[in-house]
Amino acid sequence: MRLLWLRNDLRLDDHAGWQALADYQGKTAAVFILPAHWLTTDAAGLHRLGAAKAAYLQQALADLSARLAPFPLTLLQGEPVELLLAWHRLQPFELVTHAAQAPEEAGWLARLCDAGVKVHTVEAQPLFEPEQIAPLFKKFPASFTGFRKKVEKVPAWPVPAPQAAADVSRLRAAACPLTTGIDWPVTPAELAHPAWQGGETHARAWLQHYLFEQRALAHYKASRNDLAGRYFSSHLSAALAWGCLSPREVWQQILEYEQQWGSDEHSYWLRFELLWREYFHWSLRVHGSQLFAAGGLTGKAGPGVFNAEYWQAWCEARTGWPMIDAGLKELMATGFCSNRLRQNLASCFIHELGLDWCLGARFFEQHLLDFDVASNWGNWAYIAGAGHDPRHGRLFNPHRQWRQYDPELTHLHQWLPELGPVTLTQVEAHQRGEQLLNYPAPLVPLRTL
Question: Which pLDDT belongs to residue 301?
C-alpha cells in the first residue's frame, strides 16, 4: 500500500503527495501524527502546542477530513517514527511525505529509511523547486537582498504554477492497524480573527475576500506594520505555516489581482514578504542545526543569561513595560501579534532583558498559531545578530516604534484596559522608570535611543 504522512501540508490543492496517492493502483491511506513531545513541558515551562495553535490545527484537520470524505484521514498521537514503524510491521507500505524543513524532521525520515521503509518526498512548502535553488546551495546568499536580486532578475527562477487538486474520489482506503485518535488539549471555541479559522476551505475564502472582495492589498505596504485591525496585513501566515494554502497559489492570486487592478508597491510588497519566507526556508535547509545553536549562523551571538525573575515576568506579561505586556497578552490569548510587535518583543527580550534568544524563539513556538520553524527561528536569529543580518543584530527603539505605529494607544488600551486614560507620554515615562503609573514598575528602565 501507499501511505501519505501529512505534517504542515494540510491541503488538497497544489499537493504532489495527494497526486501520488491518486495515481497509485493499490490501497492507500493518509495520516497526521501529533508528536507526543509537543505536549511535554520542558525545564523552562515551555511546550510546543499552545491553546490557539492547537485550535487552529484541530480545525485544519477537521476541514481536510471533510474535504476527503468518505476517504478517511487517520489521526495518531505519539512518537512519529515508532508509530510509522509499528504500522509498517503490521501492514507494509511505501511512504510519501513532504521534504524535511528542519533537522528534527530530517532525522525522522533518515530513521525510517534506515529501518527499511521506502520514502518518497515531495515539496509542499516552498515557492521554488529544489532544482531552481540548487545553484545557490554551494554559496548560499548571506543576505536576503542577495537572494532576492537573484530570484527577481534571473529568468531561471520563475515561480511554478500551482497544480490542480488530485482526484481523491479514486482513492481506495486501507484501514489503519493502530489505535487512532488524538488527546487534544483544551482550546478556545473560536479564534479571534476570521483569517485564523483553520483549514483549506477557510484559507481560500479569506484569500479571495482579502484580495478581491475587500481589495485590502491596495494599502498593504502602508498598513502592514500597524499593530491592530482586521485588514492591516494579509493574515495569511497561519494558512501558509500549516500548508492550508500553497505559497504558489498565493503568488498566483496576487498576479491575478495585479492583472485586474494593476501592480504597485503594495502588491509587490506582499510578494516581497513571500520571498523573505522563501529565503528563510532554503537557508534552514542549507545551514540545518547551526541555526538552533546559541551562536546561530554567525557564531557571534551570545547565549544570554537566564534570569528566573525576568523569565517569569515575561511569561506572565508583567515586564512593567505596558506596550510589551500588551503584545505578550495578545500573543498568549490569540496566538498572534503583528510582525512589528514580534520584532519589538524580540528586541526587548534579547537586548533589554539580556535573555537567550533561543529561549525567546521557543516561547514563540509554543504560542504562535502561525509558527513556521524557518521564519520564526530565522527572524529571532536576525534580531539577535545570529542570522542573516549585515548589521549583526537589530536593537529597536520601542518608544519611537509606538509613537509611529500606535500613537493613539489603540492596541495598548485593547490589551491593557486597566491602564485607563493614559497618554503616550505618560506610558513612555513609566517605561523609563521616571514617573510610574498605577502599574507594575519596569523590570529595567527602557532606554530611549
Answer: 67
